[in-house]
Write a structure and sequence with these properties.
heterodimer; A: Potassium Channel Kv1.1, Chain A; three-stranded mixed sheet; 24 helices; 8% strand; B: mainly alpha; 5 helical Cullin repeat like; 5 domains; three-stranded antiparallel sheet; 29 helices
């Protein structure tokens, strides 16, 4: 095995598990072309060969020689893991710095190298850092790393915390050093993996498997950490009030929280019109801009030059957010705390469970927030449930689908009606919806690409004819 | 929407009917605030939600149109303000530019924010209806309601003002480059053809660029004409070079990449292509001056400029003329030098001949010097291969105008080899290489071969020199072995002869046996009739027998006229060892038995051809230092009744005396004609051979094709089509070829 630095850089640059437009991985191409050394190198560098996956099994079948095939099979991990989880890639991007300034603490690695990080993330991912942040670092903006032997280890740990897996960095560091640093900062999962790596010794196959294992465990631990953050520090700490704004004292409790929030989301729950005893409710959640900007709506909100972008003080010396000022509040335009919490969970760790009764609200919230994934998830809930949400009928679902431009809902409704045509023909509401379809139909036909709708329209039009025949 | 439950659709429930006007009033106020840079108080969330709800309630179209109208009105107001504020007659032109730049920058910032707020309108309404996004609407309105309003009023003003600034900059004034660059960027952002955005047509390309190029043309046309009026090429080159560098450096700061190549092409055309031929022709510091005075810097700059436009036609034409002129001036110098030689009446003929030889050498030397100079010139032209060809072609042209070229060059090499003792090997190598380059320029190489063979033969028969082989190797390298095979044969003969002579005897008798076809010299027809003295006659017979015994079946012809003989004679004062030609020897030996002989008697007794006899007698009876015989009367000419007598009182400071035979060095005209005839004869054979070779392989060919093929095959000289045609006719006569029965332009090969 060569230590060719350029090749390492190359592997790093092309990210060993990335695919091109034909879904080819570097591993597949190397295997197909018979470059055994490169195949080995890629596997050792963390390329995943999972014969349950299409990209990988292709590499096995396409292998030019038996040696390469055996090599691939020997590295097979066959364990489902999606290294490109959206929340993971977002955290990675935070490490590289986004267009928006969200960092609130700086570390000085050497005289000319500074790393700017997020307090809430360090606190969430590491108990050690949390202690530090609450105590000795609480008022500091710049932390100087005094022990220089720790710098490389620190860099790998930061990668780990930000879900950035870079196997090439491991080549340049003594594992024992890494282990002792991991112990120092009490990173239990991390310690376990490093211990395994040390045990593996020079067995490169075992090492490569461990590297993949490393990634999987990293994601799992992160997911747990963020779930804990959301439940303990955000939802558990929410403040319910009948006033539109928080008092300074209330904000201060947020400021002191180990969740280190930098923004407060307020949700306005309007009282039902016929219930006059209760006032409107306001619910406040301490959250983080670094997470909210995963969503386009918030990203634009914080980058465009409106009021929302002007509420932060900057520490210009270190290019970080100055936390000593108050935490601003912004309004989250959703109708209930339940919907807000679904969205928060989704933002923090891709939590995708949406109770049926909130699916419609989440659908509209997703539309407003310009978040297609949220919309899709809501639509999936609606279309895979056996029943309808409370208080909604099938036509409501259809209209919601039209309004939010989610085709899946329209298809679903059309199919459901077609399967129960007899029942719906008796429904007076059905005639109205058919008329709406006719209007829409004309509109749709003026659009290019309307043909994709044609099948469903035909179905519905058949119904129409049936209806007229019946009438 | 129909409602049948209390806790559903909370997002949509609050207002059953949206009041468009109410929401729009808020949005419109916000947009005005944004335009006035007061946005930091506005809540993005509130504005976004208002526009979101309007679009969701199907007010998308109304909202879109209202926004368009509002922004349009705002920009019209801005335009009025600009027109009122600036009359452009005062010194506020820069303020005007700055103001527009600021207004534009504010506007795009505002549009960015407005489109952020109206993001949902963009993504849902504009996209579904294939309308421009709000941001683009704002940009287009800036174009229509401000820049291009009222047939491009403000736009034209801007174009003019920017051009003024650029012109000032060209004239050396410092300008606000960033301001210019900003306005140009603005022009580029204004899309012209909205339907075909891919075409990339924008305000800049449509209005400013043509205007700019046009003004630039006028500017540089004027500048270059002013410089041209100075009538000085060096100054012209330097000044336009400066203009070009200046323009390149400055324009790159504000000009878009797309225009830069157009600009460069334009100024190159104005400053270089269209004027350079004229500049090179200037008498005062023009191309001729640069070449004649070896101004390599100027030439190098000229080359750089010409390379920019890749236009060398004019240059090639002119340099060709200059070389031809220089070349022919070398020859006219010769004539001038010959005249005083003619005025010297003593030994008139002889000295003029010598003069001609030295002139030949001088001429070649001058050509070599000229070539050296052009090599340096070529170096300053970056050793451009194309130009090298041009220069060489010009050399070929003027050199071949001199019909004596081949002879002169051969003489030059002859001289070089003979006098090689005086020079170092390196020097000789250098001069030889240069001679070979001139050889390369010779069109009729067969003519050169002829002369070279003659000179070589004479040198070989005297004594061979290692240099000969070097020269032959160089020629071979240059043109191939077919050319040199006969020359090499000559070497073989000489070496073989040495061995034969050694085996045959005798230190006193050296003989060269030459293969007739290799050598240019032929035995004179009456050689067998020459009467030899007894001593020589027996030697001749002995060798004859020995050689024919050695090589059975060969035929030996004797050529006494090339040999020499050493005779030891006791004169009154001293014994001298005389080296002379065999003819002279034969004559001298006659006087062993005779006291006095007349010319006619000598002729009868020796049978030496008359012209040779005259020359021999001149060398031993007329030449002042080698008068072995006395002659009566004492005149230079030899007449039949002249009386010759052995001169016992001959004396010389040296014991060994070499008697030179009066020799022809340079050909006179009749000799040259003879040489040419001989050459012509050889060429006929060569052409015949080539034609037959071609026809043998092709069987049937058209006349023109045959001519082309033949010219291709002949490398030793350049046959004229007429000459080839004659040879074809000759071959037809001899029935090597046959004309086609139907088409007389086609030939067939007859086996």
């Amino acid at each position: 095995m060569s230590d060719d630095k350029d090749f390492n850089d190359l592997c790093f640059a092309c990210r060993v598990n990335q695919v091109d437009k034909f879904d080819y991985t570097p591993l597949y191409l190397a295997s197909l072309c018979g470059h055994e050394e490169i195949v080995r190198m890629l596997l050792q560098r963390g390329a995943i060969c999972d014969i349950d996956k299409r990209e990988s099994i292709r590499a096995v079948y396409g292998a030019l020689t038996d040696q390469i095939r055996n090599l691939l099979i020997s590295y097979d991990i066959s364990k489902k893991v999606d290294t490109n989880l959206p929340f993971a890639s977002h955290f990675r991007s935070l490490l590289n710095g986004t267009s928006l300034l969200t960092e609130d603490i700086a570390f000085e690695l050497s005289d000319d190298s500074k790393l700017r990080l997020h307090r809430f993330l360090l606190s969430t991912r590491s108990k050690y850092f949390r202690e530090k942040l609450i105590n000795s670092w609480s008022t500091k903006d710049l932390i100087k790393l005094t022990d220089h032997s720790d710098i490389n280890a620190f860099s790998i740990v930061v990668d780990y915390l930000y879900l950035h897996h870079n196997p090439s960095k491991f080549d340049k560091i003594d594992y024992n050093l890494l282990l002792s640093y991991g112990k120092k900062i009490k990173l239990n999962e991390f310690i376990k993996i490093i211990e395994d790596l040390i045990k593996a010794g020079d067995d490169s196959k075992a090492k490569a498997k461990l590297m993949n294992e490393f990634q999987i465990r990293m994601f799992e631990s992160a997911r747990d950490d963020f779930q804990k953050l959301v439940e303990d520090e955000i939802i558990n700490k929410k403040i319910i009030s009948n006033k539109e704004a928080l008092t300074d004292d209330q904000i201060e409790t947020f400021q002191k929280s180990v969740g280190f929030p930098d923004i407060i989301l307020s949700v306005h729950e309007e009282n039902d019109e016929d219930d006059e005893e209760n006032d409107d409710k306001y619910i406040f959640y301490p959250v983080h801009r670094a997470i909210l900007i995963r969503d386009d709506y918030f990203k634009v909100m914080f980058s465009s030059q409106f009021h929302e972008s002007t509420i932060y003080e900057l520490n210009t010396t270190h290019q970080i957010i100055d936390r000593s000022t108050t935490i601003p509040t912004i309004h989250l335009p959703v109708s209930s705390s339940e919907v807000a919490e679904i969205i928060i969970r989704f933002f923090y760790y891709d939590h995708s469970e949406i109770p049926l009764n909130y699916a419609i609200d989440v659908l509209f919230a997703g539309d407003l927030l310009l978040n297609e994934r949220l919309k899709t998830m809501a639509a999936v809930t609606l279309t895979t449930s056996d029943s309808l949400p409370d208080g909604y009928d099938l036509y409501d679902i259809l209209r919601a689908g039209w309004e939010t431009r989610v085709d899946r809902l329209e298809h679903y409704v059309a199919k459901t009606i077609a399967n129960n045509l007899e029942n719906y023909l008796k429904d007076s509401e059905f005639a109205n919806i058919v008329l709406e379809v006719c209007e829409k139909n004309e509109f749709v036909e003026t659009l290019p690409g309307y043909k994709s709708y044609q099948k469903d329209l035909d179905e519905i039009e058949d119904l129409l004819q049936d209806l007229q025949l019946e009438a | 929407m129909l409602s049948n439950g209390s806790r559903k659709k909370k997002i949509r429930a609050p207002r059953k009917v949206m009041d468009f006007e109410k929401s729009w009033a808020v949005l419109a106020a916000a947009i005005r605030e944004i335009e006035n840079k007061n946005a930091y108080e506005l809540s993005f969330e509130e504005l976004y939600r208002k526009s979101y709800n309007l679009v969701l309630r199907k007010y998308g179209k109304q909202l879109y149109e209202s926004v368009k109208l509002l922004i349009g009105d705002y920009l019209l107001g801005l335009k009025d303000h600009l027109n009122k504020e600036y009359d452009l007659t005062n010194d506020n032109k820069l303020d005007y530019l700055k103001d527009i730049k600021d207004k534009w920058e504010d506007h795009i910032l505002a549009m960015r924010m407005i489109s952020d707020v109206l993001m949902y309108l963009d993504r849902v309404y504009a996209k579904e209806n294939h309308l421009p996004l709000i941001y683009d609407v704002g940009i287009n309105l800036f174009r229509d309601n401000l820049i291009k309003f009222n047939s491009n009023t403000i736009g034209n003003q801007l174009n003019m003002l920017i051009m003024d600034e650029i012109t000032s900059n060209r004239n050396g004034l410092i300008i606000d480059i960033f301001l210019i660059k900003s306005i140009i960027n603005m022009f580029e952002s204004l899309i012209e053809d909205e339907k075909n955005i891919e075409l990339g047509e924008n305000y800049y390309l449509k209005y400013f660029e043509p205007f700019y190029l046009n003004k630039t043309f006028e500017y540089y046309e004027k500048q270059s004409n002013e410089i041209l009026d100075l009538q000085n090429g060096t100054i012209y080159l330097k000044m336009i070079n400066e203009l070009i560098i200046n323009e390149e450096n400055k324009s790159i700061l504000y000009l878009p990449n797309i225009t830069y190549p157009k600009l460069i092409k334009l100024i190159d055309e104005i400053l270089i292509s269209s004027k350079i031929d004229q500049v090179m022709k200037f008498n005062n510091e023009g191309l001729k001056n640069w070449i004649l005075n070896e101004k390599y810097d100027d030439l190098n700059l000229l080359y750089k400029l010409l390379s920019r436009v890749d236009y060398f036609d004019g240059f090639k034409l002119q340099i060709n003329e200059i070389i031809l002129e220089e070349g022919s001036s070398l020859e006219s110098n010769d004539i001038v030098e010959t005249i005083p030689g003619d005025g010297n009446n003593k030994n008139n003929k002889n000295s003029s001949k010598k003069a001609t030889t030295s002139q030949a050498l001088l001429w070649i030397e001058k050509i070599i010097k000229l070539k050296d100079k052009y090599d340096l010139i070529l170096k300053s032209l970056n050793n451009d291969l194309n130009l090298q060809k041009t220069i060489e072609n010009s050399f070929v042209e003027f050199l071949n105008k001199n019909s004596k070229l081949s002879e002169y060059l051969s003489l030059f090499i002859d001289d070089l080899i003979k006098k090689s003792g005086n020079k170092s090997e390196e020097e000789i190598e250098i001069i030889l290489n240069k001679s070979i380059i001139i050889f390369r320029f010779i069109k009729d190489k067969d003519l050169f071969e002829k002369y070279y063979k003659n000179h070589l033969a004479k040198r070989l028969l005297k004594n061979s020199n290692d240099l000969e082989r070097v020269v032959i190797a160089k020629i071979k390298n240059e043109i191939g072995s077919s050319f040199t095979s006969k020359l090499e044969g000559m070497f073989r003969d000489i070496n073989l002869s040495k061995e034969v002579s050694k085996k045959f005897n005798s230190k006193i008798f050296e003989i060269n046996v030459l293969t007739k076809t290799f050598w240019p010299i032929q035995p004179t027809t009456n050689n067998e009739e020459i009467i030899l003295p007894q001593q020589l006659e027996s030697l001749k017979r002995k060798f004859n027998d020995y050689y024919l015994n050695l090589y059975n079946g060969r035929n030996l012809n004797w050529s006494f006229n090339f040999g020499s003989i050493d005779i030891r004679i006791k004169f009154d004062k001293k014994i001298h060892e005389l080296n002379m030609s065999i003819y002279c020897g034969i004559i001298v030996l006659l006087f062993e038995e005779n006291d006095e002989l007349t010319f006619s008697q000598i002729e009868t007794l020796t049978q030496i051809p008359k012209s040779d006899l005259i020359r021999s007698l001149q060398s031993i009876a007329v030449a002042p230092r080698t008068r072995i015989l006395t002659k009566k009367p004492m005149s230079k000419d030899i007449k039949p009744n002249d009386l010759f007598k052995f001169n016992n009182s001959f004396s010389s400071p040296m014991t060994k005396v070499k008697i030179l035979t009066v020799a022809n060095k340079i050909e006179n005209d009749s000799e040259r004609n003879k040489t040419m005839e001989k050459i012509d004869e050889d060429r006929k054979f060569e052409l015949d051979a080539a034609i037959v070779r071609i026809m043998k392989s092709r069987k049937t060919l058209r006349h023109n094709e045959l001519i082309v093929e033949t010219v291709k095959q002949i490398t030793r000289f350049k046959p004229s089509p007429q000459f080839i045609k004659k040879r074809i006719e000759a071959l037809l006569e001899r029935e090597y070829l046959q004309r086609d029965k139907d088409d007389r332009g086609i030939y067939h090969y007859l086996a």
